Amino acid sequence: MIPQTQELMVDLDSIYHAIEYGGNEEEIKSKTLSVFANWSQGTYGSGSDTDVFILCPRTTDGTAVLKGNHKRLMDFLAKLGESTGVMVFKATLEYSREGMPIHLEAYNLPWVINPPLGERPLYLFDKDTMYKQQWMLKDICAPRGRLVCTVSPTNKRAVIPSDAFTSRPPDFTLFGPGFLGHRDVIIDVYTLQAVVLIPKDRISRALKSRKQMMDATSSFRTMGSSASDGPEWGPSVCLKNFPAEVDCVHLLENLDLSVAQERPGVWNEVMGILCRFKTAKEIGTSRIFASIRKFSFKKVRPFLDILVTRFDTVNDIFSFTAGIKEASQLQDQDVVRQWCADRGDNQIMRILGSDEKTLPSLVQYAFVNGLPLLSNFIKSLSKDKTVGFTFWLSLVSHLDRQWQSVNSLSFAGAPLHELYSMLDCCIAAMTPLVTEGAVYTLVPPGLMDDVRHNAEVHVKRAVILIEICLRFSPGRCGEVLSDVLLVPGDLQTKFDLLLRPFVRSLRPLLNQYGVTIFRPPFSLFYRFLIGMFLGNLARSGKPPLARTLCTKKVVCDRCEFIENFLSSGEESKELIVTNKEWKHVRYVFPKLKDRIFPPTVTSGHSWKTIRITRRPEARTEAAREFLLMIGDEGDILKLVGPLKKAVWETLKNMEPFDIEPFLQFPPPTTVGSQTA
């Protein structure tokens, strides 16, 4: 128990009373300064026992509120700080359901306290009830000047690690350990606000003890410009030990211009600390503009380069760049204008391009301010592998729509080729996303629906991208076709799920744009496709039969029987199966009816003997169906060139033909190099 505690409460309560009942401002100021003096002189308690006092005004129901008079006191103390060293900081104060303060956080406190190891008492006072709750303070010097005190629900003691006391925390100390002692901080909490009270005369005496002849404010200028600073308390040491960004801005405002010119090392350290800011709101743009007027744009530019990336709205960027231009006045106008165009516009591009919903604004802004800006943004965005196909498609659509509305050969000083260059870059980024993650292999029946759905997505993307290429960049068609052709997986599964639907959708699209199948790179694509299909047909001696994966743990002899029969030369064969087994066979081979006649049951009830008969025209029908999907019969024979006779005779006579001539065409990887 500290005997003088009651005196502190009475003095502080008199200040509140004067505020609440309209006391004279001079009287309030006098009372406040008296508290400062008594506190610094140790009148209220021993420095070895008391570190921090917190005063918590509450209403009768135990909830913390910010009354008008309380706010007046906060404003008054902040104003008083201009001449007394009072600094105002935000803090949060949480109450339990019983109305007990349980959590306090205050940030950016420029503390110089270096208490000994072990627990320290922290007293929390309630103004209305005169209730005193003792917390055991374990850490009042958390990183970056942050105070966190939490009451344990069991013993109501502050649960804070004391790691900070084991070594000197260089990032937290303003002027050095123990520079002001232990009794120079009062935190006055007013529902989510805190005031840190540091008497100015106390700071002045401490500075004099270190042979610094100015008070805290003027010493900033002295330390920054003096060439005789010792190694311990020189500018570098002070800058590295600054715990609060607010103090660093204060230092920037008070530095002499000679520091920026004669002490580049000190200046670079100031810039490095300023770059820690998260938003410009922590500093205030007016203070930034004032620094530009004082030190010139070029000196503050490293800080501005970082700061401009922290804005999250276009209007904020516009206001910021406009303020920089005005603050620069006649100095470095060309450099400032170029910086605003580069840095400001690039940040606007990032903001507008972060969401598909903002793409219309992004494109419209680029058409007004110049397409090279958007072109650079698209090039940088193309390196981001997380951007999906739909985003690129939306961007292309908005570019096309905006271009149609402009309907001009040049705009904003950018020629037409700039637009096509951007579209070409979009197409290049979309191409590998057409068949992203596609692997067409035999899968269990339960997963077949997912494979089929993915195949539909791939087909839709490929057709959309081919249409975009035909409109804006025909030379890119070959890359898309090669990407579709070279998808890994089982050949027959790929034909059934991807290539057939793609060819079926591609034909009307080519007719719409007046493109024939003889035009490169489509002619090469179709030749490879025909070669793959007919080559597989010729080698196997049977048409490829689509199937799903047989999920039986052992080899299914019924499925094996069907495969062997279709690959043999037999016309018909008998098979003994149950109804369940035959149903399984039809599930595994969904297109079996295209290869055999309906089976004939010869005998049996639960077990039955069925006769399956081959359809001799099955292979020819399958090949003819696929070829006519590409084009008319005359076009197909013209497309295959010297192989038309061999192809036709093979289809007619059901004899395997030589696939080697097809291999004389360039490999599929070179399809993309062909131009339309």
TrEMBL record:
This is Uncharacterized protein. It comes from Thelephora terrestris.
